[in-house]
Each structure stands twice: as C-alpha cells, then as structure tokens.
Amino acid sequence: MRRSTAISILLASILAVTSVTSDAGPGQRQGGANADRTHQVDRDRTFDRDRTMDRDRTMDRDRTMDREHRQDRARVDEPERDRDRDRDRVQVPASMRDHEIYGSELMTATERARYRKELGNAKSQEERKQFQARHEEQMRNRALAQGRDLVPPGQGPIYGGEFMSVQERNQYREQLRMLDSDQAREQFQMQHRERINKRAEALGLEVADVD
Is 104 in contact with 119 (CB distance < 8 Å)? Predict the structure, then answer.
C-alpha cells in the first residue's frame, strides 16, 4: 500500500514538472526568438550605417583626389602658360604697350610699330609663335652684340645684378624664363643668391636690396 502510494506521488510530481515546463516553454521560446530578431535588426542597422559611412568616406576621398588632381594639373600647366605669355597673347597686337614687347628697349619706335603690325598679320597661332621666336632670337643677338641688358616682359631687377656682367644677367633672365615650375624657379633663384652672396663677401661688399 505504501509502495503504491509512493509511486502515485512520484508520478504526480513528474506530471506537475512536465506541465510547468510545457506551459513555460512556448513563452520562453517566443521571448528568445524575439530577442534574436531584435539583435538581428540591430546588426543590420549597424551594417547599413557602417556601409553608408564607408561609401561617404570613399566619395569624399574621390572628390578630394579629383580636386587635388585638378590643382596639380593647373600648377603644371600654369608655368608653361607663364613662360609663353608674351607669345600667346589674345589681345590685339596693335594695343600692346612697349614694355610688353620682348626686347623693346633694344628697338626703335619704327621697329616696335612694325613688330605689332607683323604680329597682327599672323594667320594662325603657330605662325605667331614662329614670328615671335625669330624676333626673340634677333633681340638676344642684338643684346649680345651691343653689350646691353635684355629684360623679358614680367621680369624685374636681379638680386646682385651689380656683381654680374651683362652677359651673365641676360643668361640668368633667359634661364629663369625657361623654367617650368614655381619650385624650379625658387630653387634656381636661391642658388643664384648663394653665389652672389659669396661673390660679394669675397669683395668685402654688400648686396643691394631688390624690390
């Protein structure tokens, strides 16, 4: 009798535990599924946010690189335009002022007038460049023959020019005119200043300031 009673109690306990587990299981499983979905949504949002940030950074980097490329291209092209600015004028040659003509200080008024006329008669940009190249060569030969300074348009006094011969000054101006970048010009001028300072020091003199 006692054994039957114990078995009955044991079966009742097992049924009670099974009932509790059965009742609690679906809710717990549902709560776990909801938590998983919430975590997945959070991960998806994080992924989308990171992907958007990466895309924005890539676009910003591309825009920056494109802008820097255009700036570099402009810096490369600008010295070339500066070097040929006296050859590539779009203005009417007849309106050119005397100091805008290469070697004008070595020319007579009649020669300057003829220069403007012939330049204006050029039928193409290439023909204009060829005419000006011939004119520049003529002016350099004239300056050398006369022992006179030839100052290209846009250039000013030379640092330490008083310590240089006419030939040296003309050579310096022409070399400076042919350089293709600001960096090259700055380096060339720095080296020139060092040579002049040494020359002045050897003579016990000071170099005059250049504006």
Answer: no
Least Cα distance to 16 among 26, 5, 28, 8 occurs for: 8
Read off the DSSP letter of residue 38: H
Nearest to 86, CA basis, from 137, 152, 180, 138: 152
Q: Are 169 and 177 in contact (CB under 8 A)?
A: no
pLDDT digits (tens, 9 = 90+) for 42-94: 676 766 676 777 777 777 777 766 666 566 555 544 544 555 554 444 457 88
Cβ atoms of 83 and 185 within 8 Å: the answer is no
- Burial of residue 137, with CB atoms counted within 10 A of its CB: 0-12 exposed, 13-18 middle, 19 or more buried: exposed
CA nearest to 199, candidates 211, 191, 173: 191
Q: Which residue has the tokens 């006296």?
A: 86
From residue 88, alpha-carbon distances to 77, 135, 170, 211 in Å are: 14, 14, 22, 28
Give 104-118 as a DSSP string: GGGS-HHHHHHHHHH
Residue with tokens 């991960």, as numbered in its chain = 43
